Amino acid sequence: MRDSSKPAVRRKEAGPTIIIAVLLLYLFLPIVATFLFSIAKDWQSSILPTSYTLSWYGQIFSDPRFLFAVLRTLLVGVLTVTLGLAVMVPVIFVLAVYFPKWEKLLQISVLLPFAFPPVVAAIGLIKLYSGGPVPLTGTIWILIAVYFILIQPFIYQSVRSSLRTIHAKDLMEAAEVLGSGRMNAFLRIILPNIWSGTLVACLLSFSMVFGEFVMGRMLVGGEFETVQQYLYNAMKVSGPSASAVVVTYFLFIFLISGIVLKLGKRKPKGYLAHPKPGGEDQ
Hints:
Elements: H1 5-39, E1 40-42, E2 51-52, H2 55-61, H3 64-97, H4 103-115, H5 118-129, H6 140-150, H7 152-166, H8 168-177, H9 182-193, H10 195-211, H11 214-219, H12 227-235, H13 239-264
């Protein structure tokens, strides 16, 4: 007997599939066009390039300025994210578990970066730190300090959601009843269980720092050239060379994302999965 419900199910599933396909096309079409432009040797009046070359990639990877720009961006990103996680994760944990009534202040604090446009904030920071006892403008330290503020929303949302998922307060109470100290319980129980959320926070924060341009340009200028500033300068010289930088940037972020997601799937030592009703492990 023919099942008449199958065509209706297919029509019902076709709508979301078409929407997702349009969204993917909208997202990836500029990237594909940028990639084609970065490998085009001759592209004038045809839909696709008539000849291809990798010389633009060879040009940027043989440029010491580009390599130093990548290293500087990595340095700022690693220092900022490490500082942000080292400070924010314990603060979020303590407020969520022991002082929940003060958590509202932290929520307001992490939302402040969205209230100030980057240009306005940069002008204020330049006026504040250009002189006086702490002249930070033009140094890497003001970038790290500013990025530390900007990444707070990403760290807070990821870590707080993880703490809420594992019921951190109940876990801490159970650990203390069993004789464990608070620091020991935090290090051996809480941190391994919020590992995936912390990695997501790390990924989002690093991506933000790696792609930020306005603050770096206005607070440090060309003296401390990052990848985004190198890209800005390359756009003024050569379009294909700038496209090669953009594609390299996307590949680097894609690689970092893959590594972080791979690490996020690792289970902590001693982890025992709960069996599913069907007999499979979760």
